[in-house]
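We both want to read discrete structure tokens more fluently, so let's practise on a single case. Would you write everything just below, so we can both look at the same thing?
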Amino acid sequence: MNRREFIRSSLVSTGSVCLASVGISANPGTTHILSLSFDDGFKNSFYRIAEIHENYGLKACLNVIATGHEKSFNTEPTWIPQKLLGDFNDWNKLNERGHEIMPHTWEHLNLTEIPYEKGQENIDKCLSYFKDNLIGYTDKGAVYNFAYNASTPELEDYAMSKVSAIRTGGWLVLKDSKVNKFPVNELPLRLGCWGDGPGFCDDYIEMEINEFLAGRGGWLILNLHGLDDEGWGPISSNYLDNLLKRLIKIDFLSVQPTGEIVAMSGVY
């Protein structure tokens, strides 16, 4: 399944709580981890996403296409027009500001629709390009984010032989579970995520996070793209700003990039 085939599953809303009503001292200690994982590399959106996170002392989780800055990039012009994408000068600037920049494939192909050997080659070329162009990048500790959140067990195993974690469709990896295991105690990791589109996904995000906060805890990864009118399933900038403003007041919740959580494991 990929994002173009995604069908929103029905959710159990019993016990759901509104973010605005969650008490600051609802539970002692951090029991819930949330990662807002932004894909593709929209230049204007990613700078704005970073700025909004910085306003609340947070680091943004930004995943970029290795060749997205090249004029020849046209893999999905409807949702990822090349003219809107940044380059590694931008990603190094955001990296220097403390935000997380991770690989989101070589050319944004659905690797399940091409020969396995070609998929391997795409993974290798992507990781090699990051090593050569993103300051401080190493595969150790990296999270490889599959395009369309589409993968196969064979592709996952290959990618995990290179990096510390992969992110793919939660419906493929975690079956009926809505959260990833936390704390992390072994690497490499298969991380599952959820997303919605192609229109604005503000309501979907609110619903998912409400349900997550009402549960026992774990690690929820929501896959997002651009802000306002950029990308598949965009989120409005005002909503993101208000969302983070509310989330940082919840003492049992930590909002972190995926790589930060992997690093916190202490496994590598």
